[in-house]
Structure prediction request, 657 residues.
Amino acid sequence: MASSKTLTLIFLLLFLPISLSSPVSISVSPQTLTKSNRTITIRWSGVDSPSDLDWLGIYSPPSSSDQDFIGYLFLNASSTWATGSGSISLPLVNLRSDYSFRIFRWTRSEVNPKHHDHDQNPLPGTKHLLAESGAVGFDNPGGPEQIHLAFTNREDEMRVLWITGDGSENWVRYGVEEGRLEAAEKAAVGRYERGDMCDFPANTSVGWRDPGWIQDGVMRGLEKGKKYYYQVGSDKGGWSDIHSFISRDNDANETIAFLFGDMGTAVPYSTFYRTQDESRSTVKWILRDLENFGDKPVFVSHIGDISYARGFSWIWDEFFNQIEPIASRVPYHVCIGNHEYNWPLQPWKPLWAAYGTDGGGECGIPYSLKFKMPGKSFLPTGTGAPDTRNLYYSFDAGVVHFLYLSTETNFLKGSDQYNFIKADLEKVNRDKTPFVVVQGHRPMYTTSNEVRDTPLREKMLEHLEPLLVANNVTLALWGHVHRYERFCPMKNFKCEDVSSNVTYGASPVHLVIGMAGQDWQPIWEPRSDHQDVPIFPQPERSMYRGGEFGYTRLVATREKLTLTYIGNHDGEMHDMLEILSGKAPYTTDDFVAEDGDEVGAKAGGEGSGKFKFSHYLKEAGILLLGAFVGYFFGFITHCRRRDAPRNTWIPVKSEET
Ligand SMILES: *[C@@H]1O[C@H](CO)[C@@H](O)[C@H](O)[C@H]1NC(C)=O
Ligand SMILES: *[C@@H]1O[C@H](CO)[C@@H](O)[C@H](O)[C@H]1NC(C)=O
Ligand SMILES: *[C@@H]1O[C@H](CO)[C@@H](O)[C@H](O)[C@H]1NC(C)=O
Ligand SMILES: *[C@@H]1O[C@H](CO)[C@@H](O)[C@H](O)[C@H]1NC(C)=O
Ligand SMILES: *[C@@H]1O[C@H](CO)[C@@H](O)[C@H](O)[C@H]1NC(C)=O
Ligand SMILES: *[C@@H]1O[C@H](CO)[C@@H](O)[C@H](O)[C@H]1NC(C)=O
Ligand SMILES: [Fe+2]
Prediction:
């Protein structure tokens, strides 16, 4: 054995130089792609004594040095790799520069455990280049691409942002007929530079790529609740496809939103960080729901930890390509997460907050410029780079007032943000928007083993919770923990009337909804050596916990807000929450009839479902009678578990740090 190993080694040492200089050929087709995300095929041959360590590096631009790949795949991804020839196909996103591909050999003795990805897997070495392909590019690399919509401060507007390869004049043109886009608005244009990035890897040649130019167009004078068609670009630089959206209508009697945190990006290669394959499913099911909702106004709320680029610039391009089918159609709203922001010199950094380096040196700049949310919050970065924006803001959508806040910047009493939140919640007109939904990234409540943030949660409870309680906030939604968890209506760790599931003058119902794609969370399960002791016991206040990837869907009418948790393995409901506003006249009979059907149909096994509902409603009715003074808040929660067998769904695995 030993001698045969030695022989192999001698053989390798003798022949490696020869095999390295032997002609390996690599070709790519097509060499020009008509659009972002079109698939290319890379073919190679002539690899002598193939090894499972041989790999393909993906480069953009082609002038990048060997160690500055954007991603890699092992040649053994091709079934014929052992013959020395093979092929790999993958879609390419337009990075406004050409791509090229290089094949490297890398021997076991060269594995450097110090040069690794964030999972501690060694990154492939680049010492022995076997072959390099020609350049592959796009017909129109300058865009326009990565289209995404957002509300502005005005009800009769819709903002659209997109990326172009240069800063030349761009336009959005729009109208109610697809063939007649007669209105046009010129876009404002902006960008950021490598020098604006504040740490590794964002400011280095590994992470930095030219991000292009950010075009910002606002469609104005829109009529309420109408379908508008639009396209962006210019005669010189080309026009996008025509997209459509439903304009905003704050008189709408129904509000629909998809809400989630921590989704991330799926890419077809390995890179320096693990990417979020599950985000594909989240996008897929939301697109299905959008089809089903047809021409109703909908929007998306992604509450922090957005692309998980963390300083690797091209991941943002991949992300905006991935969400474009959604975001070119409905407004895509965000708030800031640790992974967009945290860096060593962030301006507000109390020791108890334990803010780390999770932003990968982006210091909030891509987040602040690639999105433009309503409001006017900002915080200087303190480095001369553009201000951090999109921190806190609010808007009404139909019957719900939505407030977004930042858990990464000062929220303590007396801060600008605190004052904003207080004033905003106090001026909500509950006749117009009976429901108020507050959203932020790090949770105020969670039962996951998220100990690092305990002091921060204490500050949130001390400074923010009283505002939420005093102003009868309906829902408080948080991300960061990659789980779904629903609490009872909470006030300082106290569950308000969990016994009856009907709460009167209820406190906010908190939910953690960070389950949209990032995999990295503690497991709420007994340890293998202590099956009897759960690691993270579920206290009474935690009404439902789910470990499956997915998102939530909010549908609210004046009478009732319904939030459902959709699981990605089957696109079906796993939990549901209903909250009554007490705002509109309704009778017990109406409500039970309407909802009883749904209960009967969907939760067939739960024979007592109907009875329970009517029982609760009667109770609510009685409470209502005694409640003519001021507000009535009915709260009904009905949990539907669909515990699918283990092997049919994909649970999240390990902890976020
Ligand atoms: C390909 O090679 C890599 C590196 O040795 C290995 O981790 C992986 O499991 C292999 N994949 C296949 C499909 O054989
Ligand atoms: C990146 O930022 C860090 C922190 O400011 C700095 O020490 C480093 O020199 C910068 N690197 C480059 C290449 O600019
Ligand atoms: C909303 O409901 C009110 C009262 O029933 C009605 O007058 C109004 O037309 C409705 N608005 C829409 C947009 O459906
Ligand atoms: C990109 O292309 C792949 C197939 O090549 C497809 O599955 C995916 O949906 C596309 N993504 C987008 C955002 O169009
Ligand atoms: C909140 O609800 C309580 C109980 O129904 C009510 O007394 C109070 O006036 C409400 N406060 C606000 C700001 O709506
Ligand atoms: C309240 O709802 C929870 C979860 O939906 C359920 O487990 C519990 O049994 C309900 N309480 C009562 C009294 O029915
Ligand atoms: Fe986070």
